[in-house]
Fold:
Amino acid sequence: MPIHVSTENRWLLRISKSAKPSLRLVCFPFAGSSASIFRPWIDRLPAEVEVLGVQLPGRENRLREQYIRNMDEIVEHLEREIGPALDPPYVFFGHSLGSLIAYELLQRLEATGRGRAELFVASGAPAPHTCISSGEPLTLTKEQIQRDLRKISGTDTTLLDNVELIALLLPMFQADFELYVNYRYRDAAPIKTPIVVIRGADDIYISHQRQLEWNRHTHGQFLFHIVPGGHHFMIDSSEAVLGLINNYLKPILSRHIGCGLPIVQDA
Structure:
């Protein structure tokens, strides 16, 4: 089955196998990555699912654009730029930093009456209220970024050992890590969207308790899963992650399959 890929909307990498998908899976990448990390997923998802990978500035097709280091600014852009693609039904998936961005966008969409997602999968991320900013925006040093990368990577030092690659990627890591450490949660009512949390069994970057506390952020159902791997389990245990996602998508698809989604014009 041919796969259609579109970047006409610079904020989205649209990947689909069907001309009339029944469900959109909106995916928010982790710090230091980009929308193409979700390209292989289309081969392991039902043909009726369209993947929308969120593309932040400063990477891939947006390489020449300035990074954004402020959460409110990113969410405002996303609400305006990808809002038209969020005709129901849709599901949000985010990993690590991507989960926090997805959550803030869901809060904004529900608060403004723009509808809600069928499901939000918060993968490898702390509950928003456990993210405590110092108040003053922090600028991270190269040493601080490399220290965090070591903690995230665990025993895999492939990236850190590649001096040239690290030098090339450092500006993106700095922007994304600063976005994370400067994120300030503002008290808000729980969202109506059900939340599924996925944790890596060996993740030493985000504690088990901080992930469990996502349960206070939804009025809907809350479920918690542990899969093999460290903080990067989304890559290392992709089969397990996609197996869980597919299990949750099946009942959603059964309600909507054959209906087709509205045709969305790229911005």
